[in-house]
Amino acid sequence: MDAGPTIRITQVADYVFTVDFGAALPALLTDESPPIGGGTGPFPEQLLISGVANCLCASLVFALGKFRQEARGVAAEASCRLERNPAGRLRVTAIDVRIRLGAAAADLPRIDRVLEQFERFCTVSESVKAGIPVAVSVADRDGTRLK
């Protein structure tokens, strides 16, 4: 097994932590959302869905490049559903990622092949799917749903 990335987390105060990604990247300040935390930084659920969405977008860009398709920009919005488990603890029970391409589908002749493959390239979403359903949709610049 290859070693993956490593981070270091250090408490600053209450629920505020600094996430250290190493010397090459700036640290990230995180917090819990109110009323538990002060909301001074992204909270864990936001970090989870941003990781899933970012990985999916990067995988889509990779697949588009593989088929020499120009998306003219990729953007996404991600959300998650929180529900209480039988013990009353909040859990992420679903993630929804809505990706939008900057190009029209008509300008992407191989988009079907791209859409068939890109999710499999995403390490994060494919790993998270083992425990949390992840719904992914893709639309072109006109809002036409492609997936």
Automatic annotation (TrEMBL):
InterPro entries, per database record: KH_dom-like_a/b (IPR015946), OsmC/Ohr_fam (IPR003718), OsmC/Ohrsf (IPR036102)
Signal peptide: none
Name listed for the protein in its UniProt record: Peroxiredoxin
Source species of the chain: Methylobacterium phyllosphaerae
